[in-house]
Amino acid sequence: MSDALLPLSVFVPLLAGVCVFLSGGGARSPVALSGVLLSLAISLLLVMAVGSQGTLDHALAGWEPPLGIRLHADGLAALMILLTAVVGALVSLHAVGQFAGKSEIANRFWTLWLLLWGSLNALFLSADLFNVYVTLELVTLAAIPLVLLAGSRQSVSASLNYLLLALFGSLLYLGGVALIYGMTGTLDLQLIGERLPAGGWPVGVATALIVAGLLVKAAIVPFHFWLPPAHGGAPAPVSALLSALVVKAAVYLLLRLWAGPLQLPLSAPWVAQLLGALGAAAIILGSIQAMRQPRLKLVVAYSTVAQLGYILLFFPLAVASAWQGAVYHGLAHGVAKAALFLAAGNMLYHLGHDRVAELRGMGRPLALSLGAFAIASVSIMGLPPSGGFIAKWLLLQSALEQGLWWIVATVLVGGLLAAGYVFRVMRYAFMEAHAGPSVDRAPTPAQPLMVWSALTLAVLSIVLGFTARPLLTLLGEIPLGGG
Amino acid sequence: MNWMLLLMPALPLLLGLTLGLGGHVQAKTLTGAGLACGLAVVIALLGTDGLRLDWILLGTELGVDGLSRGLLLLAGVLWGAAAIHSRTLLAGEDGRRYAVFFLLTLAGNLGLLVARDVATFYLGFALMTFAAYGLVVHSGKAEAMRAGRIYLILAVLGEVLLLAGLLMLAAQAGNTRVEAIGEVYRQLPHPAITAGLVAAGFAVKMGVVPLHVWLPLAHPAAPVPASAVLSGIILKAGLLGWIHLLPLGEIAVPALGQALIALGLFGAYYAALVGCFQQRPKTVLAYSSVSQMGLLAVLVGTWLGGEGDDRLLAVAILVFAVHHGLAKGLLFLAVPMIQRGVRPVAWLSLLPVLALAGFPLTSGILAKSALKTVAPDGLSLLLTLTSVTTGLLLLRFLRVAWPESQAREPAGRHELLSWLLVLVLSLMLPWWLATGDLRGYSLQWSSMVDGIWPLALAGLLAFVASRLLPRWPGLPEGDLVAPLERRLIGGGRWMRTRLERWRSPSAISTQDDSGLPAERRPWPEPGITVGALLLLLVVLGLAWLIA
Amino acid sequence: MLTGAGIYQALPLWVLLSSLLAALLVFLAGEDRNRLRITVNLAAAVLKLLLVGVMGYGVLQGHTFLVTMPILPGLDLVLHADALTMLFTTLSALLWLVTTIYAIAYLERRPNRARFFGFFSLCVASTMGIATAGNLFTFFIFYELLTLATWPLVVHNGWPKAMAVGRMYLRYTLGGGVVLLLGIVWLAALGQSGDFVAGGTLEHLAPEHRTALIAIFLLLIGGLGVKAALVPLHGWLPSAMVAPAPVSALLHAVAVVKAGAFGVVRVVYDVFGTSLVADLQMNTVLALLASFTIIYGSVRAIAQTDLKRRLAYSTVSQVSYITLGVALGSPLATIGGLVHLVHQGLMKITLFFCAGNYAENSGIHSIDELNGIGRRMPWTTAMFTIGAFGMMGAPPLAGFVSKWYLGMGALQAGAPWVLLVLLGSTVLNAIYFLPLLHRAWFRESGEKAIATAGEPGPGLLVPTLLTGISALGVGILAGFPLSPLSWVTFIVGQEYAP
Questions:
Q1: Which of A219, A365, B149, C466 has the most neighbouring CB atoms within 10 Å?
Q2: Across the strands, what pairs with A355?
Q3: What is the rounded average pLDDT for all residues in chain C?
Q4: A83 and A44 in one domain?
Q5: Do residues A15 and A136 both lie within one domain?
Q6: Does the ipTM exceed 0.90?
Q7: Where are the domains positioned within chain C?
Q8: Distances (CA, A) of A144 to A112, A115, A118, A137, A162
Q9: Do chains A and B touch (3 or more CB pairs under 8 A)?
């Protein structure tokens, strides 16, 4: 029975999105919220089912591959679905406050967001390369109009950039998929793994194309330039969703492919080293850029660029603890980054601007949002006790076990650089100020819902520091040896 | 009975600590000091069992033996007299502060006299030393401040040397009891080093040349009663330290003993001669103290060298110490009255002067005889000749102290009372403490002669010298310290320019309020700083040598 | 689950939570609910003291408190209470109460009190965590939390200077944290959990991983040395005195430098074990480092004209006594080092309270403004005198007892040169403290002294008196069965028992 949860977790959000779109006037908000609740409940049920039964499989409409569409839920997918559900639910609460009184925007937001949710779940559960492609496109296509919700000219150009890059990435990916289909005659992840030749240039080219496509979508250095304007320009709940979930989807696929059909090509030393090096570069460059940003949301956005790099450090390490560390970093970063964006959004909402240098004295009026920002930052900096710390610990330990000192150094320096940009913001809260922070318009205090959702996410990022054991049990063993 | 051992030092201590609260300064101080001194005398006369207090400090043990009973008697008398003498000071400006330091010094002094373990002895010694600083600088004049500074530098030096020695003892056997000290020394791999450190530590207090320089500065600067106790009993704390904490009569440390004898003899002459060229009576008296302590150092050195008879030496030291304490205390108490022209006091003061000079029938002849009975054979003449220099020094004292005219104002009641009290006791106590043999020996004809001819010689010399030198030359007070101080201050300026940039390397200066550019901000206490750096160099050098 | 025995067993957790929850409540109560905040603060401080008392009794009875929470496979969050824990928790709990009272009075009518007291409690919670940590991992969690909790206190005034110092503080402490983390993870990579077990757990690794162990030791000490202010990692400490006086007191006496020193103790005794440290010849390195710090800090203190800055350099010097005692490794030296953990805390907190009183009451910041203040503020100055003499190691004060045991221990450990360091430090201490006392008691009253009406209010004075008298009391009553000295002797007896 419980394998029915797989299609449900995909279709419930999608249907809810459609319902919101169709429903009129005052009914939208309740419809949207019940959609969110329902999706949340199903996601949680799914996660619990995976937890109790191990992996779940479901062939859509009873058609088995290679003809039909297979949905597959293992520990990795379950964790991502859990992350999406928890972050999504809390961001939804925030959105209720953020878009209160702006029904037109709210309408679009709820529709798009629920579609996005469904697509994300579909992506996590997809078990064949083409479905992955389709869901990846769906995610992108739902995400880009969300960026546009901000309605400003910058956001239009940002989303255009985003669109172009995403399409470019999709094309690369599709090329790789085509090559693989040519070689193996199947798209099912498991079957590919069995049929893919062990070497040869076509495999290499296909891998390169797929990886490049995903790197573009995941905004890994040097393809990161589209991310900060898009994430920084969008409304706060959207930024939170994009940074916490959408870019994760692409990185998730990298891990998924490593764990599945492409383990052999991706484990080639120079490939692994290259991916690791890109990750290290992302950590360093992203953090340095974050330190130099004049606007708070851009700081947070560049922080995303940096943090995604940690997950790529998995490839050169490729042992169990690194696997756990990389996945756990994904979770921890998702929660913490959502909190950061929501908190930053609250400040923007309150003051009408988010220029870092003019935030002096924000401690009083924005105490709770600032608190959320501070708490979530602990995880971002990888300091204990937090999910980020656990992830960092695992990565460090596996790096030390293998004597990969450059990774050790990168992780440690990355933490310090993160402290650099976090405290650059925090210090403004503590500076002596005779008046409050400067404002662009009459201050509009953020609603309690907005504040508390941010705070809850922040606290969750700390709680993740104590829940590593059950979550990593759910994740299960590192899948070695293909399939 | 033995609870008195704790009560005696605790009373002035608590009183001193709580005097800040308020209350009548004079009444409280006099009562407290009087009671403590009374207890001291009672304990000294009656003796008592020891007292163990495991909870206090590192396991405190209090008690008395023959020698400390004698010194306790001296302390009771002198401190009592000083307290009475202090009445006017207590009423004056900063009287409360004076009272606090007076009581604390008293507490420390009494405490160390009854301490029977190393840590407690050190406690009393340190308390006395640091609290006495408050007495030295009491007047607040620049002179007193300088004296205080030099006192403190040497005191800290002494404490540190002492602590080093004590730690070596303690490392062997924990907080050692005084009785067991010889045993501990026997176990030490290098007893001479430890003994040397202990000896040097107390030598500062004893004013052994060249560590004596604080004495001639501190005595004139301190108020009169403070000078009296300083010379009369506080110096003797160093003596007690030597006796308690050196392995006297247990193991011989000949090198150290000879060093003490040599330094003591040298000091006895040197201080007396330097004192002859001083201008102020209290300075002259201070030099006399240095000179006399030199003689005590000779005795202790003899004992430490393993020569002489233990019992005779103990008696000699006790008699000498009590004799000197009383006589010197008397003279200090008398100085202001003599200077104001109170003739009877001036004439009566000849008694302690003669005593110090070792004139027959005074306590001095007793002390001198005691010295001779135990001194090493070769030194007999040298020791006798110190009487000549002592005589010269005392003549110098009379010369600078003697009133030019009749009394302008009568002596104060309390001043006179306290003085007379000590005077009476000074005539009796040393004789009472001496053994029958010693008394007999002192009254022999040959001893009498030995008491007189050096004085006659001194008188002759003084007469000749005053004829030959139309203007009597002067030496700076504290002799060695003056040029040294100049060097240090000069060096301090030089060092300051070197170190200025090093001082505040961090970009965040916290001292911007003065408005002065960094290079012109005052460097605190240049002399001290340079001293510190030199000391540091020495310490590091030694560390390097040992390690 | 929650049986009575379970609750009792989890005492370290309650101790930790008592201030953690206080922090939470204070944050949530907000700025304006003054009375509630004060009540919460004091109630939590008293409650903690009681809990610590119960725990101490239990430890004395031979009970071992242990709370374990698995985090990762082979990696547990462990809170426990052994005798060493009790030494630190008791000190912190007592001084926290006193400092809270002082801080309430000090910050009266100043802005941002909710923030201040929130982080203040958080800071103490971290300290409790450090004290009760049962392995290096747990220790590290609270060590970093302490950094985060103290930064807001250091920059509390918000002046540009404070912000600059805050940045410097972070650079040092976060940098130190990274180094420490590296050491701990490296140890974990060698398969060692870093549990705190008397005598250490790493001896069996020595033949195979000698170099790695040396590197790990140096990393750990390097990371801890930042907070313990070992030269050359001490730079933040003198600058951090721009913080308000209660914070300085906390930094110097209770929390931060102590956390570092305590960590050194744990690493040497309970992770590596003295024999292994000696085998790796790290004890000499550590002793030399500590000795140099002792002398260097004192020499620098002489040159300071700002009162708090001078005290800060004095801390640099004094805290290294603890490290020195630990490094020497002989039982007596260990007693000296550990007991100094408590003694230095009492003396230094007194000194900083006094400095705070001078600044608050008379506007005295610099040394030459102290002239004659003893006449106007005799009690504060008397306590300052006690603290200063204690630092010099004069009997019967707390510092004497420490120095006494350190000196004996140095000889026992066969390192007589350490005696010279101790004595040199005594002299240097005298050089930078005695002139202050001289000024305060004996100089003509200066401007600031004349303008001073009298002692500060009871909120400031009473804590000062309490700590000052304690600094005297633990020295005078060192032989008392419950004195820090006796307690430390008990600990060391356990350490060297087998």
A1: A219
A2: A295
A3: 90
A4: yes
A5: no
A6: yes
A7: 281-307+314-498
A8: 10, 12, 16, 11, 7
A9: no
